[in-house]
Amino acid sequence: QFLMANKLDTAMWISRLFTVYCSALFVLPLLGLHEAASFYQRALLANALTSALRLHQRLPHFQLSRAFLAQALLEDSCHYLLYSLIFVNSYPVTMSIFPILLFSLLHAATYTKKVLDARGSNSLPFLRNLLEKLNANQQNILKFIACNEIFLMPATVFMLFSGQGSLLQPFIYYRFLTLRYSSRRNPYCRTLFTELRIVVEHLIMKPSCPVFVRRLCLSSISFISRLAPTVA
């Protein structure tokens, strides 16, 4: 009754569980490397479906207008719909699967807990314990996802020069990264950029750091800072 009363949430729960399943079979290719590539695409398509359903839930009345598009781009679900479209037809990249795997796992765990509560407060205590441990590590998981989002930017450039990516992919991914940096709901991308900058500046200011390395890093930091969008 609980699942039928919340059909859209239940559909997203099932698609997230399917994303976790396909992602796991890509990361751990138990069925062979050829099958792993197909699971990579299935995971991204399932994530695209989840993101589209979530976006519909957040913005139910679609309008073909600039204002609606601007509002949609503020939603995290729209960001990951774009993310799925960026990588779904590209060469499989293991780094790109972790954000959708972990986001799907976290959201599926939250809804699974609601399903268990509907069954009874003492149902499946072992599963409840696993979900509580996952929830306790949520902050670390979100930081790991943000780290993946950041380091995928140079990875797309490397893929371009190695012949495994398209010319447009780095530019479209840069747009995705600026959306994540400006996210209202998830500040972890901004936080990670700040933390990485502090760590790099601390290391290059040590006397043992060569001067040319220091200059290169400072120039890179300045360049990346100019590319960062303004956050209200």
Question: Describe the biggest sheet?
Answer: none
In total, how many domains does the architecture comprise?
A: 2
Which blocks of ≥5 consecutive residues have pLDDT under 50?
Answer: none
* SS element count, helices: 11
Helix content: over 70%
Task: Please state the overall shape, judged from the principal axes of the Cα atoms.
Answer: globular
Number of strands: 0
Task: Describe the overall structure.
Its main location: membrane. This is TMM33 protein. It is a single chain. By secondary structure, the chain is mainly alpha-helical. It has 2 domains: 1-185, no CATH class; 188-231, no CATH class. The chain has 11 helices and no strands. The chain has helices at 2-5, 7-27, 33-58, 66-72, 76-87, 94-119, 125-136, 138-161, 169-181, 188-204, 211-227. Helix 8 (138-161) runs antiparallel to helix 9. The N and C termini lie far apart (43 Å).
Question: Gist?
Answer:
Helices cover 77% and strands 0% of the residues. By secondary structure, it is mainly α.
List the helices and strands and how they pair.
Blueprint: H1 2-5, H2 7-27, H3 33-58, H4 66-72, H5 76-87, H6 94-119, H7 125-136, H8 138-161, H9 169-181, H10 188-204, H11 211-227
Helix pairs in contact: 2-3, 2-6, 3-5, 3-6, 5-9, 6-7, 6-8, 8-9, 8-10, 10-11
Characteristic key phrases:
232 residues; single chain; mainly alpha
